[in-house]
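To assess whether ligand presence alters the predicted conformation, the chain was also submitted together with heme C. Input:
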Amino acid sequence: MKSVGGVAKPAGAMLKGEMAFDPVVANAAIRTMNAAAYTVGNHFPVGSETGMETTVSPKIWEDMAGFEAKLAQFQKDTDAAAAAEPKDLDAFKAAMGPVFKNCKGCHEDYRIKKN
Ligand code: HEC
């Protein structure tokens, strides 16, 4: 998730027009998110609920099926974005719209705010 946060910044800046569109950066961001979508599930084994410095909500373990459904959607949307290989800003916006919806949707349900 840290890597996702790292690439989300330039991606967000490009979407908001704060940074010039760069297809290399854009597609690298998509690939990082896509890879994270397929590995993040492994970071929450049953039994790792407590003791770590984390913002993971215990709800993940109470509702593993719901979490996995969100994860599957995130995989699907980042797959589609990666396949689209956006080459201009409009295409990038179209590809990232559904991807960024996943972030908020999953964080709202499965992540607790530290303060
Ligand atoms: C399927 C669920 C899910 C999706 C989708 C998801 N996240 Fe997360 N994210 C989490 C959880 C759970 C945590 C808490 C992890 C922790 O504290 O160890 C988290 C934490 C984070 C963090 C804090 C990382 C840290 O180490 O403190 C960032 C940044 C982040 N996510 C960015 C994103 C962005 C950007 C997207 C979308 C492109 C995204 N996430 C999509 C579940 C998700």
